[in-house]
């Protein structure tokens, strides 16, 4: 166990966990703008939908004071043992989300390393890492 949550997963490991556990939940904690303009992970081929719960709000970046309650509304309840996989843009906000879920008794809670888009490259661009770059299913509106 990583400090405060179940651990970090590569995007491929996250996919494998989601595929192996019918009760596992994928929670995308990015903002509404990121979901709309960048794209979202698509797990419909696994018979489930991605849950969308902002960790911070767009455009002001304020913390979501109802985050844990929103995750519960997505069907995750304390003590149910359902794996919860948190994903953000680059794997940073999702660490905090996994820690908050764990503190609330949800999970085991995991963080997806590199998130959806990965970190910045030498030119200051994202997209060379993460869920999309790993070739995992995603869609764009």
TrEMBL record:
Keyword Metal-binding among UniProt keywords: no
Signal sequence range: none
Rhodanese domain span: 20-128
Please provide an example of a Pfam family that matches this protein in its UniProt record. Rhodanese
Keywords, in A-Z order: Transferase
Q: Name one GO molecular function term.
A: transferase activity
Which protein are we looking at?
Rhodanese-related sulfurtransferase
């Amino acid at each position: 166990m990583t400090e405060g949550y179940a651990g970090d997963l590569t995007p491929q490991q996250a996919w494998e966990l989601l595929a192996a556990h019918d009760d596992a939940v994928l929670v995308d904690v990015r903002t509404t703008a990121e979901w709309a303009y960048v794209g979202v992970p698509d797990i419909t081929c696994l018979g489930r939908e991605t849950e969308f719960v902002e960790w911070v709000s767009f455009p002001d970046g304020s913390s979501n004071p109802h985050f844990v309650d929103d995750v519960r509304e997505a069907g995750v309840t304390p003590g149910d043992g359902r794996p919860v996989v948190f994903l953000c843009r680059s794997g940073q906000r999702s660490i905090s989300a996994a820690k908050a879920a764990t503190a609330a008794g949800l999970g085991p809670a995991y963080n997806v390393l590199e998130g959806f888009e990965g970190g910045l490259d030498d030119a200051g661009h994202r997209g060379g890492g993460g869920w999309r770059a790993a070739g995992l299913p995603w869609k764009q509106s």
